[in-house]
Amino acid sequence: MIAQEAMSERAIILAPLGRDSQIALMMLNEAGYDGVITRDLVALCSELQQGAGLLLISSEALLGGDLEPLLGLIEQQPAWSDLPIVLMTYHGGPEQNPASRYGPQLGNVTFLERPFHPVTLISLVTTALRGRRRQYEARDRLIDLSQSELRLQNTLETLEQQVEERTAQLRHNEEALRQSQKMEAVGQLTGGIAHDFNNMLTGIIGSLELLRRRLARGRTEDLDSLIDLGVTSANRAAGLTHRLLAFSRRQSLDSKPVEMNTLVVSMGELLQRSINETIQLDMQLNEQLWVAEADPNQLESALLNLVINARDAMPDGGKLVVKTSNQHLDLGFTETQSNLQPGDYVVLSVTDTGCGMPQSTINRAFDPFFTTKPIGQGTGLGLSMIYGFSKQSRGHVAIHSEVGKGTTVSLFLPRFSGVLPQDSPVNVQHAPFAQNGETVLIVEDDPAVRVLVSTVLSDLGYAFVEAGDADSAVPILDSGQRIDLLISDVGLPGMNGRQLAEIGRQYRPDLKVLFITGYAEHAAVRGGFLDPGMQMITKPFTFDLLTAKVREMIRI
Fold first, then answer.
1. CATH code at 214?
2. Mean pLDDT for the chain?
3. Helices (H), 248-345
4. CA distances from 25 to 10, 46, 50, 119, 219 (A)
5. How many domains does the chain contain in total?
6. 487 contacts 545 by C-beta, under 8 angstroms
7. Is residue 266 domain-shared with residue 401, that is, in the same domain?
8. For site-directed labelling of 360, which of 159, 222, 280, 401 has its Cα 20 to 30 A away?
9. 405 and 264 together in one domain
């Protein structure tokens, strides 16, 4: 039994050139992992049939050999199994690594660029074996469930009881498989977030530490570059959280009528800068295009993501088409989709003439942190963010692709059915400083955010009153204290910010409210969350935006 368990978690290594196989085995053994070196694909398949935790294969080992036996073994895996494969490549694209094109056929592949650091190899192996153990646990649960099903079937007295028990067991079986997949997704999610956030936090913490050292020494020259480094890293971190919220459909959307052609044209220069000179950008915009309903900022982000993905699919150049069109989706189509209603939709599609995707990749394209790019060259959140944005906007996203012919990603957004607003007058820029003792009530449970907001407003001459939660703020609202504006976090402990605003307007009917939120499930669609006299900004926000909103709302 012990020998069988060891075989099921060992690494099978195939790297016939040089000393890569011996070096890899030595690193694995030093880390406490077992492994075996094979001389060719035939030997590898023979070892694989005896059991394996993962395969560690060099890209050149796949060239010139017969891959059919290996692909057949991978294809014949049971439902619970998804064998991890670490493919050792060289730095560079397909020209340096022609075998990397086999990645989609091999299934659960992670790319490892050579020369590799021992820590990187062991980290990949540890993650792969952790996922492999979860697969074995799912298999064991399935075996246990099957045995339990047989025992129950032997004791059932009626056919009705047999049907009920079998249905229950099948549901339990499905839940076990879903739980296994969910845990694997969580591991992939946390690993991707940790990698990206650690990089960003290094930039933020490092720049602040250097600023502190220089100021302690009295050096005040050339601080702007350190400040810019910290701000850039912080903005990247904010962008990652926004993409995660978009994927989970929990971002705060400011949906409004959008002239999609105007938006695409306004982004033309940015899109052109985002691709290289070997790619021809062609905009095919329908002159009779309907007005869409969406958050324009999120739509811009989605379009930019699609164009960058298309660019990466055409490393040798090609043609990229951005197209807008009108389309009516009937009941026959929408019934096959989740949360999609029949009706008119405005379609934004991005088409490339690149390498295309097999069906197996299309099936996983919207999964979080799934990417076909080498490690460090893609977060795998772009398409999942677009998927979340489309669903939260009551729309749809579809992929059509053929290997070797290119890919089209189409984003469907609902047609705006309301009355188009008239052109707004030019906003009058109000002075940012307080006038006549204007007072702001700040309700925020995070002390750091509360201190920063109060300090900024105090510097501009505003009087302020602070509260750490809604319960502490209610007596202030019920007092004779002057309050020109309530600034409240939405996600307060206990009573939330929206409930606090309703109570505040019972005491003060004309109370103006500015919500600040990093995440609020019920504030996902602002139109249904905000009443007149209420506005919202999303964390993290710039202080220029905060003070402009404060000035604007108080002066209305």
1. 1.10.287
2. 80
3. 260-266, 268-274, 296-312, 331-334
4. 11, 19, 19, 14, 51
5. 4
6. no
7. yes
8. 280
9. yes
Alpha-carbon gap, residue 351 to 59, rounded angstroms:
30
Q: How many residues does the chain have?
A: 556
DSSP strand pairing (318-329 vs 396-402): unpaired
Strand partners, 109: 85
User: Token digits for 48?
Assistant: 């694989």
Placement of tokens 């009706």 in the chain: 343
Structure confidence at residue 556 (pLDDT) = 67
Q: What is the dihedral of CA 360, 361, 363, 364, to 10 degrees?
A: 130
Whether residue 550 contacts residue 457, with contact meaning beta carbons closer than 8 Å, is answered with yes
User: What DSSP state is assigned to residue 292?
Assistant: E
Name the stretches of the chain with pLDDT < 50.
Answer: 2, 246-251, 374-380, 424-428, 430, 520-527
User: 135, 167, 184 — which closes off a domain?
Assistant: 135
Specify whether 240 is located in the same domain as 270. no
CA–CA dist 315, 93 (Å, integer): 8
Short-list 252, 315, 234, CA closest to 278: 315
Spatial strand order of the sheet with 463-467 comes to 463-467, 439-443, 485-489, 513-517, 534-538
**Which residues of 116-201 form beta strands (DSSP E)?**
none
Q: How many CA atoms lie within 13 A of 126 on its CB side?
A: 11
- Let me know if residue 433 belongs to a domain: no
> Which positions ≥6 away from 261 have C-beta within 8 Å?
285, 286, 287, 289, 324
- Domain shared by 269 and 400, yes or no: yes
Task: State which amino acid sits at residue 54.
Answer: L
Q: Which two tokens stand for residue 374?
A: 């080498």
Q: Each residue of 438-488: pLDDT tens digit?
A: 899 999 888 878 888 888 888 888 899 999 899 999 999 999 899 999 999
Note the pLDDT tens digit of each residue in 64-106: 778 888 888 988 888 888 899 998 887 766 655 666 677 777 8
